[in-house]
């Protein structure tokens, strides 16, 4: 809770809540560096939430501009430079995921803090894999929000590779594309997510339960062979056409993507 005065207003907005205190405007410690006030782009389509977050950040000493749609956010980032983008996941026009993907695909490295009421592991992984720097689940609390903003500002707009690579397997989460060597792979949505999980965990045995949690994130009949079938589908696309064996079954344990493929003459 931001401690800038005696009067406290607690405002509940369903899954969106932020607690703010009345305070005089003006920069505070942590919002400036070398006498420069840092600027924030807040991308939030809920007007009440946007007003509360903007008030809280203004009282903390930041300048804040608000965009209410995905296309509006992309336009703002071409018009001026921001220190941090606070990006809501659910937006009209373009989702937060798509906005992040487009920013990174045009090599825009502004630190992005994704905001969402979705707290599943799969949602957090999707946001971070697409190029976001941090992910914060609503309700929002000012102390935590400003602490994360300060950390992102310290890190700065540093270029960083977003491709995942193991041997000659390569996956670009932002572009939603994957390759074996120079050959682009045609993958379904689930096959792409499955390959992404294996590339994040090379040479690690992943159980069916772990794969289920990260790729399906839903109720599942454990007696079904759904995961086994999708691993087979993926093998048919990343291994067999290239006569290699890299995605292997570990009997009684799960599946593992080897760090190097081995020849498979079949």
How are the SSEs placed, and which strands pair?
Blueprint: E1 8-13, E2 16-21, E3 32-33, E4 36-37, E5 39-43, H1 47-59, E6 63-67, H2 70-79, E7 84-88, H3 96-105, E8 112-116, H4 121-129, E9 134-137, H5 142-155, E10 164-166, E11 169-172, E12 177-180, E13 183-184, H6 189-200, H7 208-216, H8 226-238, E14 244-250, E15 254-263
Parallel strand pairs: 5-6, 5-7, 7-8, 8-9
Antiparallel strand pairs: 1-2, 3-4, 10-11, 11-12, 12-13, 14-15
Helix pairs in contact: 2-3, 6-7, 6-8
Name the features:
four-stranded antiparallel beta sheet, 8 helices, 2 domains, Rossmann fold, elongated, alpha/beta, Arc Repressor Mutant, subunit A
Derived structural class: alpha/beta
What's the mean pLDDT score? 84
CA-based shape: elongated
How many helical stretches? 8
**Approximately what portion of the residues adopt beta-strand conformation?**
25-35%
Q: Would you state the CATH class of the largest domain?
A: Alpha Beta
Query: Could you estimate the helical fraction of the residues in percent?
Result: 25-40%
Task: Summarize the biggest pleated sheet.
Answer: 5 strands, parallel
- Strands of the widest sheet, in order across it, are 6-5-7-8-9
Q: What is the name of the CATH superfamily of the largest domain?
A: Response regulator
